[in-house]
Amino acid sequence: MAACSIIASMSLSQDIKLKTIELGFDLVGVTDASPIDAGQAQRFAVWLESGFAGQMDYMRRNLQKRLDPTKLLDHARSIIVVGLNYTPPRPGPEFCSAPVPTGRIADYAQYEDYHPFMKERLHKLVDFISSQVGAGLRFKIGVDSAPVAERALAARAGLGFIGKNHILINPQLGCEIFLGEIITDLELQPDEPVAAGCVDCTRCINACPTGALRPDGQFDARRCINYLTIEHKGVIPAELAERIGGRLFGCEECVLACPCQKDAPVCRNKQFRFYPDRAQISLHEIPGLTTESFEAKFADSPVKRVGLDGLKRNAAICLANTTGQP
Known about the structure:
There is one protein chain. The protein is built from 13 helices and nine strands. It is an alpha+beta fold. Strand 5 (about 160) and strand 6 form a beta hairpin. The radius of gyration is 21 Å and the shape is globular. The model has no long low-confidence stretch (mean pLDDT about 90).
């Protein structure tokens, strides 16, 4: 690339980053559209072959697209990766002492559904880029909607490193970060990755209630409480159900154990709607929910992903674990 082209690419990249922050994202980085690292691709293939994906059949589909962004967009040259911090305010002790049995909701599900929120702003970012480079920009947006190895790409774009909890960790913002991508045919100046920061730390592995984070570094999703309470269909094995405790939807033990998460700032985006009353939900309320009342209560919540039957199953498990009631 000629010197003037490099300077132009750097200037455009900087303008895009400033606009990204203006739109309410906390992190932004750029990487090229080359396939993910061969070692990462091999580890992912072994993970699938070992059956650790459980019932998540979508992880096995479109494998080449997941590994190579150019399979998603012909002539792709760059990927803009953004991050949105969703660390919630921590409730005081008076909130935690509920008078009725309650089920814990994962931090991310205490906000509105992040998919449309982030997609809307990524489209605004594309509009801005188009205003700078003219018509003809080709792009594809991803927010869990395309088979993209987003954590690998985010790490390559300098947003953080992938920890032993298999989550992207930003040294300043911690682990609770939503990711989104714009794959484009525009050539931009790529960013440098950051160094891994948990070489000798095993706190997340030790904190996992079910042993889903294996000592050999593998992640067995079939044992993960996030997977069990959200993705798994049907009966949850008794040995694992007992370890779910009062977690109604998701789990954050490996996140909260991370030293980088300890001092993570609270989500600063005030447009991203937060519902503090969703942190804990009465377990006695859930059995009486109808399809209509479930849809109304969780209309804009990620909780709707589990479905009414799944939520009732989880509630029965939480009640048995916390009160001894079947």
